[in-house]
């Protein structure tokens, strides 16, 4: 009987732990707020590598995946992005996916580190559109 109670207690604790981890993950994804346009932070050291060319990343879709548009100077790349753990994957149309480590540096600032984007910091562009309520 005590073995049964021990197994039930372990199962209950494991279920509670998994739920709290999922809740924390959802909160982290919500706080990242990845959907929108991200511009390379020109005040950081990573901006020196781009030699002054404008660089941005526009993510759309859901909270963990969707289409993206990357602008590197005059070049425009399109494809699909996805987030798994703290790994951001960018898969261009007709190409192989590149994987980047993603770090959050507070509201509206993320760091991306990986092939072609070493230690870059991006700042989310503020949206100046204010939604108005429609009178009925």
3D structure, described in words:
An eight-stranded antiparallel β-barrel has the order 1-2-3-4-5-6-7-8. It has 136 residues and is an alpha+beta fold. It is elongated, with a radius of gyration of 20 Å. The protein is built from one helix and eight strands; from the N terminus they run H-E-E-E-E-E-E-E-E. Helix content is 23%, strand content 40%.
Helices and strands in order:
Blueprint: H1 2-32, E1 36-40, E2 55-59, E3 65-72, E4 75-84, E5 87-92, E6 98-104, E7 109-114, E8 117-124
Antiparallel strand pairs: 1-2, 1-8, 2-3, 3-4, 4-5, 5-6, 6-7, 7-8
Quick structural summary:
The protein has 1 helix and 8 strands; from the N terminus they run H-E-E-E-E-E-E-E-E.
Report on the biggest sheet: 8 strands, antiparallel, barrel
Total helix count?
A: 1
Q: Detail the poorly predicted runs.
A: 46-50
Mean pLDDT: 87
Radius of gyration equals: 20 Å
Structural class: alpha+beta
Helix content: 10-25%
**Distance between the amino and carboxyl termini:** 64 Å
For the largest sheet, list the strands in their spatial order. 1-2-3-4-5-6-7-8
Oligomer: single chain
Order of helices and strands: HEEEEEEEE
**How many runs of DSSP E, i.e. beta strands?**
8
Q: Tell me what portion of residues adopts beta-strand conformation.
A: 35-45%
What spatial form do the alpha-carbon principal axes imply? Answer: elongated
